Amino acid sequence: MDAEIALVRRARDGDRGAFEELVRRTTRLVYSKLYLETGDPHQAEDLVQETYLRAFRSMAQMTNLAGFRPWLLTIAQSAAIDAYRKSTAKRRAEPDRVSQEVLDHAPAPAAEEPGRTETRERVRTILQSLPEEYRLPLTLRYLDGADYESITMQLGLSATALRGILYRGMQLLRKAVKQEIPHESR
Amino acid sequence: MSHADHEWAREQIPAHLAGGLSAEERARLEAHLSVCAECIAEIDAGRRFERVMDDLFAPVRPKPGLEERVIRSLRTSPVRRPLPAVGRVVMGVAALVLLGLVGLVILEKEAPTWIIEGIASSTGRPTVAGPQAGAFFELQDEAKGEFPQGTAGAGGRWGWRSGGKDGRGPALEGTVPEFRNKELMSATEMAKALDRDLRRAIVDPVYRKDAEEADHNQTADEEDFKKAKGDSLDFVSDKPFKGKGTYDTIGGGLAAGRTLLGRDAPPAAEPPPPPADPAAPRPDDAVMALREERERGQSVYSYRDTAPDRPNLEANYFKPGEAGGKEAPKPETKPEPAPAKRPAASPTPAPPARSPQEAPPQEPPAPVQRKIIRSGEVEFEIDNFDSAVATVTKIAESERGFVATVNSDKLPNGKVRGVVVVRVPPENLDRLLLQLRGMGELKSQNIRSQDITKQYTDLESQLRAAKTMEERLIKIIQEGKGEIKDLLAAEKELGVWRTKIEQLTGEMRYYNNLVSLSTLTITLTEKEIRTPFGVIRTERVQISLEVEDVEKSHREALAAVAEAKGRVSKSELKQHAAGQFNAVLEFEVAPAASGPLRDRFKQLGTVAQLDVHTLEETEGGSGRAPQEIKVTQKDSRWSVSIYNLANIQPRETVQLNLACLDAEKAYRDALARAEAAGARIIGSNLNRQKNDQTTGTINFEVKDAEAGAVLADLRALGEVMRLTVTENPDTAHVTRSKRGFLVSLFAMGTVAPRETVTVRLAARSVGDAHRALFEAAGKAEARILNSQVNQGDPRNPTAVLSFEVRRLKEAEVEAALKATGETLSRTTLRAQDHENVIDSKVLYTLTVNDLANVPARESNRVSLAAKDVAAAFRAMQDALRKADAWIHVSTLNESDRQNVTAALTFDVRREQDAAIQAALMAAGTIYTRTTQRAPESAGALDTKARYELTVFDRAKIPHRETHVLAVEVGRVETAVRTFESLVAELKGRVVDAVHTQQGASGQQTSRISADVPLAASRGIADRLREYGTLTLAQVNRNPQAPENELATARLEVTFSNDLIISPESGPWANIKRGLSVSLTAGSYALMLIMVGVCFVLPVALVAWLAWKGVKKLRGPSAPAPTAAS
Predict the structure, then answer these.
(1) Which of B209-223, B363-377, B494-508, B870-884 has the lowest mean pLDDT?
(2) CB neighbours of residue B914 within 10 Å
(3) Considering chain B, what is the average pLDDT of its residues?
(4) Contact: A98, B1119; criterion CB under 8 Å
């Protein structure tokens, strides 16, 4: 943990390499967060880039070195909100044509069986409704398919601390999924 | 297998699935799994769930290398590292300084002129911007290429301005410059309309003329043409010169229009040509004439040019008459221009060739010989008739005429009047008249012409017929055919016709005679023909006599007339009412007897009127009579009027108004006096209501001799208020022999006095004073009008008394007034001396006031400082009682023991003033004293004085001086002790003492306030200097506090063992100054920045808007690629 604080300090003082190291450590987390918020992988990825740009710009103003992840997530959250606002504003300005275009050019879910997208959305909703402490670890686990080590790194947690979180989160998730989508959890 | 182990294993399953277990843990878990089917199932379920989730989320998983992509984008995107805080502050300051500099530049340089001009031109009001704006417009014009030359442009530009005012013509210029301006637009439109009219005016007449030449009968669009031309005429004739002048300034296409207008429009301005008469026999002639005229370059329709020729035509008119038997000139022989002029002269062009029979008789080229008789009458006034006749004869003969008849009359006054008839050839008549002018004064002239052509022609034809008849009859007779009877009849008939022929021939000869010789009748009158030759003188006498006995006088008058051998034409005697007799006598008497008779009448009575009137009448004329002239005296005519005076108004009437003590007695005396003088009393009247209100009037007439004495006696009866002597207008019905009197008598009481004395008195007892005055008035025989004592308010009794007293007794009243009380005010009013007031009595109006209520002239405001206020108050009260003073206010206020005050307001008599002063001295010390004297005019008493006394504690006297002293001493306690003893020594007292000690610094301060007598405070600063260093010595004087033996001084001494610095000096002032300077500078800088912002902001705003616009234009294409990707 102390190593990471040192990294954050170096990044704050303008060390690009340190910041890039931080980016590597947190990208998946941010991605998970943004995917949960938006439900659109492309937009989420765009927003990830946006988030880090913003973070890099305002890095100098960071005061709580230990709270780098929450700070980053806050930036991600506001980036998501901004994006949402922009999209609604655009939709209001040019109502039908653009949305139609978006629909036409939407990634064709031909390979997927029908209903998969819907299910995914429902699972995402479930994930979002989970208590905050389980939400991101579980998302990292299932959305990214991240392994235990990578999850701990992304979350900045100790290996033991994650175990309980994962177990209890899993219980909650499976229960919720069983309730919501019974056929998926045979 | 323990339960705990199972629990642990269950917890580890998700971690195990994620591959997060260490080797040891994994071994332990696998050991447990081997025995726990439940956990195996759990793991299976977990694996299945994970697979499901994997399936579900695999498509949305980020592609591998997400981190690298992010880092790459971070590296490529232009990340602007935010400036460190210091850098940002520096940038901000720099920006502010820049803005401030911009503001400074703008303010320093003032507003650049090009900005102002830009603003002015954008508002579109050239008048505001003046010449610069003009230049602006000029630039615009040039840019448009409308005006190749700047000057022309300017001319045009200013032209439209004046054009708009002057009218439509000059406004035409406005068509050229096209400004985006409302005013200009309207001018342009107007000009356009004009342009249309102009074009019509130019084009139409040309067209019209062509059409006219082509076909005269074509009149279909005549009306339209006229209308159009009328419009254009309006425009052209309005201001033709102005229009032309301004056209020069217009370049380009209008130049052609101008030249057209200049040459062709003026003919169009003339009235239209007379419409060709289709029925005219030879219209082509007229057309040809028109054409000829145009070729000669003359105006076609200017028929006015021929006007001067007209008199010639008229002159010719008479000439043929003289020709007698001459032939009238044929139309063919007429002068050349006639055919051209004739059609213009008359609305219907007459063809030049016309048969003589058809010509109207009044036409000058009449084919028939005219027979005109000219005759006339002239009247002259000449000096001598005979020489005049000779002159006339001579002139007539020189003009181939002769004198036909001479008639003359000699008048009684020797003057001759006569008539001469002259016959002369008609053509010489005018010349004859001119020559006759020189003969004498022309009184009147009347020349006539009579046209007898028709009668003459008739006679001619009759004669012709008769001659034919005669020839016929002669032929019959010569042939001798038929019976004798018929022949005889023919003979007879022939005789008839011959007679007729003779008659006609004679008549014609008579006419010829009249025509060939004009008849001029000259009336000659010698000058002064109205001079008279005789005078008749008649005397008229009118006399009026006043007599005692009319009847007797009448008889005597008749006798006198008879004696003078007069002829009485009227005599009457009348008696009227009131014993009035009138006699009238009219007679004629020889002029010689007139004088004696006049003397005789004068003895009969008083001559009131005598008119002698001599009338002279001239005979034979009304002019001035010559010296030697015959005078005929006729009988004198007399008219005598005799009357008595019973009912005749006196010429002079005296009106007398008298004011009498006893009107009734005076009335009786006056009546007695009038009767004694033998007066005729016409009316008298006594009106007695009360003894002092009696009035009377007497109207009488008395003989003139007695009148003076009567008037003198009447005047003695009383005081004359009015004496008027009226003279009637001097007519026949008034007489001087008696005098009228109209006496009015008034009792004294009814007449207002002229003088009114208003006195205000002050007395100790109002009632007594009133009584005394009332008695005094009674003793002085005054007439009391009003008496009143008002004691409703016992403290303020008043009395009023008014009476009239005779002048004689005035002194008595004045004495009584002096004795009764003191006079506060006295007003004597003398009314204007008019007829209704008398001077022999005086009206007194007295008001008596209580002495106590009258303010004193002198009032003293005393404030007394006493040691014991209550004691002083009591002492003063005792003193006042002793001095018999009026105490108005008396207060002792002991509510505040520390501040006892007392107030006393009282009046005291002058003589007691000294005692009061002494008492005041005894009671305390006089602190202040103000004495005020009311102005003399105010109703105030001099015999008493008012005091307003305030007594207060002497300890409350405010300090005269306050000494603020600060002393730096070694030991504060010692200094304080020494100072306190000093105060005691100076007979002062310590009021307050504050001791403070500041712990850490050990600074000690003592503030001591002490009051000492003012005298003792002098030099206190020097005394304190002995204690240590005197750092502050300040003296404040209270100007309100008086400086006397009671004055005190307050000492405020601060003893300290440290430096005491006055807060009003030192670094604090500098700090304040610095702050204010920085504030000023700051506000100035702020102002500069704001000016800079104001300058930059609009530019920035425009730039932003432009950027936004560009973005919006490119907007729709931008999102497409993202959507596609």
Answers:
(1) B209-223
(2) 10
(3) 74
(4) yes
- List the single range of B251-260, B469-478, B727-736 with lowest mean pLDDT: B251-260
Contact partners, residue B740, CB within 8 Å, separation at least 6: B649, B650, B652, B653, B654, B699, B700, B701
Which of A166, A175, A178, A180 would best serve as a mutation to test chain B binding (most B beta carbons within 10 A)? A166
pLDDT at B977: 85
Cα–Cα distance list, B624 to B443, B531, B628 (Å): 21, 6, 12
**Alpha-carbon gap, residue A16 to A56, rounded angstroms:** 9
Closest Cα in chain B, distance from residue A2 (Å): 22
Q: Side-chain half-sphere of B5: how many Cα atoms within 13 Å?
A: 14
d(CA B368, CA B323): 11
**What angle do helix axes B182-214 and B254-269 make, rounded to 10 degrees?**
60
Chain A residues closer than 8 Å to B73 by CB? 49, 52-53
Which chain A residues contact residue B11 at CB under 8 A? 163-164, 167
Among the partner-chain residues B52, B79, B1125, the one whose CB lies closest to the CB of A53 is B79
In B248-307, which ranges are continuous DSSP H helix? Answer: 254-269, 283-295
Note whether A49 contacts B59, CB cutoff 8 Å: no
- Closest approach of chain B CAs to the CA of A27, in angstroms? 6
Over the stretch B663-709, which tens digit does the pLDDT of each residue have?
A: 888 888 888 988 888 888 888 888 887 777 788 899 888 888 888 88
ipTM: 0.80
User: Is the CB of residue A114 less than 8 Å away from at least one CB of chain B?
Assistant: no
Question: Which amino acid makes up residue B34?
Answer: S
Strands B372-382 and B441-451: antiparallel
* Residues written for chain B: 1125
- Structure tokens, B946: 């008012």
B454-485 b/e (C-beta count within 10 Å ≥ 16 → b): eebeebeebbeebbebbeebeebbeeeeeeee
Q: Nearest-CA residue of chain B relative to A108?
A: B59
A129 at the B interface (CB within 8 A)? Answer: no
Q: Which among A52, A109, A119 is the nearest to B74, CB-wise?
A: A52
Does the pLDDT of residue B590 top 80, yes or no?
yes
Tally of CA atoms within 13 A in the half-sphere of B20 that contains its CB? 27
Nearest CB to B77; choose among A35, A53, A159: A53
B1055/B113: higher pLDDT: B1055
B1051 pairs with which residues across the strands? B963, B1010
Identify the DSSP state of B173: G
pLDDT, chain A, mean: 78
The answer to whether the Cβ–Cβ distance between B81 and A111 falls below 8 Å is no
| Residue B279 three-state SS | coil
Best B21, B66, B86 residue to mutate vs chain A (most A CBs within 10 Å) = B66
Statement: residue B337 has pLDDT above 80: no
User: What is the pLDDT at residue B505?
Assistant: 92
Contact A49 B73 (CB under 8 A): yes
Give yes or no for residue A98 having a pLDDT over 90. no
Q: Which of B17, B28, B55, B67 to mutate to test the interface with A (most CBs of A within 10 A)?
A: B67
Partner B contacted by A66 (CB < 8 A): no
Query: Measured between CB atoms, which of B21, B59, B61 is closest to A145?
Result: B61
Give the predicted TM-score (pTM) of the model: 0.33
CB B838 within 8 A of CB B751: yes
| Residues B409, B411: Cα–Cα separation, whole Å | 6
Radius of gyration of chain A (CA): 18
| CB–CB contact A120 B56 (8 Å) | yes
For B990, list phi and psi in degrees, rounded to 5.
-80, 125
Asked if residues B986 and B1013 have their Cβ atoms less than 8 Å apart, the reply is: yes
